[in-house]
């Protein structure tokens, strides 16, 4: 699945939904919000690239090839 | 929903209850057959249990709990699981976000040995006695076998925990090697009833999975085999699956509830209702009175935060704590604290030897 890849906003704010990869400003993220407690992020909030995600029993790490790693 | 969330352990006897006598018959039969004699329900009997109305649910769960306490005892087996190799799987299991054939957002990832050891250490700290290393593959290649050998040895060097593996279908040689590494239990799920399997997986057969399970047992490893309910199978097929598992007599049965994954063929299925999930738990306990019946994935989605309590008082005697392979669970401490509250001791390591 390829999500739209765009440059991040200058202020680094989340532009994309980390669950579905669609622009965060678009409506329809209710299901994503509900998911977030039981799902790690899958898409980089800054550029919507799919991230490499490793879940372990106690947390997760998510790596964007452009914007680096975040973790729980 | 008729079932309010808290499980009341009813002291009302079945004969006190008004209504259809046929309805309570199966519970009376199960009480005598399973609770008293330790003989699991047949496929037809399991179906009757799965067809019980919500009003009978509390009685059913109480009976399943009694059966578990009588034939397994109060101990609960606690396990942590970790994905050694995530995503990019060539198989097409329609429930799975790790198939490379679907448009799932899950990307391939490999865990290194130090991170594997760290996860095992953290798991052992919760009191867990089981740590299962999982890979999303059809079966292991040499690279994976090497990584598993290194990982199992490194864990055994520093952590006191039973190591299990789940690496797909095995050759006889691979089974032997895993047993020699000291892998004490092997997980390979049949996933669903034999009659429904072609609706779930087309890249391999139910019989191929059964063959791996046979090899695992022959090699002296414990057999862990369960599946996922709520994948569109009928109640008849859910009963069929219970009977097929009972025939296999696995040491452990992990019971998952479908958590529909975006991008997979089952991504738009409705999740199972809480009462249906609990009826399944109890029915599987009544079909397999002595097995380790483990609450696995999807319980948070189907049953919410109360699920752990309801399951543990309805036939479950093992849990996966913490996160799953690609999704998150509730914090391990929440389940450990609950076991304390329910006065259910965590099974100790040497009791499994």
UniProtKB/TrEMBL annotation, chain A:
<dbReference type="InterPro" id="IPR058605">
    <property type="entry name" value="BsaP_C"/>
</dbReference>
<dbReference type="Pfam" id="PF26519">
    <property type="entry name" value="BsaP"/>
</dbReference>
<protein>
    <recommendedName>
        <fullName>Biotin synthase auxiliary protein</fullName>
    </recommendedName>
</protein>
<keyword id="KW-0093">Biotin biosynthesis</keyword>
<comment type="function">
    <text>Required for the activity of the biotin synthase BioB.</text>
</comment>
<keyword id="KW-0479">Metal-binding</keyword>
<comment type="similarity">
    <text>Belongs to the BsaP family.</text>
</comment>
<keyword id="KW-0408">Iron</keyword>
<feature type="domain" description="Biotin synthase auxiliary protein C-terminal">
    <location>
        <begin position="51"/>
        <end position="72"/>
    </location>
</feature>
């Amino acid at each position: 699945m390829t999500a739209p890849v765009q440059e991040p906003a200058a202020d680094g704010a989340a532009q994309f939904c980390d669950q579905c990869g669609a622009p965060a400003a678009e409506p329809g993220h209710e299901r994503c919000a509900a998911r977030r407690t039981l799902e790690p992020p899958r898409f980089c909030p800054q550029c919507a690239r799919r991230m490499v995600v490793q879940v372990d029993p106690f947390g997760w790490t998510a790596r964007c090839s452009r914007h680096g790693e975040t973790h729980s | 929903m008729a079932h309010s969330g808290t499980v009341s352990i009813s002291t009302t006897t079945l004969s006190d209850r008004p209504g259809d006598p046929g309805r309570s018959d199966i519970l009376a039969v199960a009480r005598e057959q399973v609770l008293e004699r330790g003989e699991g329900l047949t496929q037809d009997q399991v179906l009757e249990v799965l067809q019980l109305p919500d009003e009978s649910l509390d009685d059913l769960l109480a009976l399943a709990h009694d059966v578990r306490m009588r034939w397994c005892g109060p101990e609960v087996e606690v396990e942590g699981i970790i994905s050694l190799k995530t995503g990019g799987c060539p198989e097409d299991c329609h429930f799975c976000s790790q198939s490379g054939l679907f448009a799932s957002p899950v990307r391939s990832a490999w865990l290194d040995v130090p991170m594997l050891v760290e996860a095992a250490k953290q798991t052992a700290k919760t009191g867990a006695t089981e740590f299962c290393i999982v890979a999303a593959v059809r079966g292991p290649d040499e690279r994976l076998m090497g990584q598993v050998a290194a990982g199992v040895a490194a864990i055994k060097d520093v952590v006191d925990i039973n190591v299990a593996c789940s690496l797909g279908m095995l050759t006889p040689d691979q089974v032997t090697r895993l047993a020699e590494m000291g892998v004490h239990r092997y997980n390979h799920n049949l996933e669903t009833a034999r009659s429904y399997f072609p609706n779930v997986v087309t890249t391999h057969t139910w019989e191929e999975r059964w063959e791996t399970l046979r090899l695992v047992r022959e090699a002296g490893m414990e057999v862990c085999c369960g599946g996922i309910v709520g994948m569109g199978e009928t109640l008849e097929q859910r009963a069929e699956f219970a009977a097929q598992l009972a025939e296999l007599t696995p040491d452990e049965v992990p019971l998952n509830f479908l958590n529909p994954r975006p991008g997979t063929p089952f991504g738009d299925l409705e999740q199972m209702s809480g009462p249906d999930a609990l009826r399944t738990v109890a029915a599987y306990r009544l079909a397999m009175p002595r097995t380790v019946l483990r609450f696995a994935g999807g319980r948070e989605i189907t049953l919410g935060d109360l699920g752990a309590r309801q399951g543990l008082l309805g036939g479950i005697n093992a849990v996966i704590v913490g996160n799953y392979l690609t999704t998150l669970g509730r914090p391990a401490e929440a389940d450990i604290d609950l076991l304390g509250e329910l006065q259910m001791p965590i099974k100790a390591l040497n009791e499994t030897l």
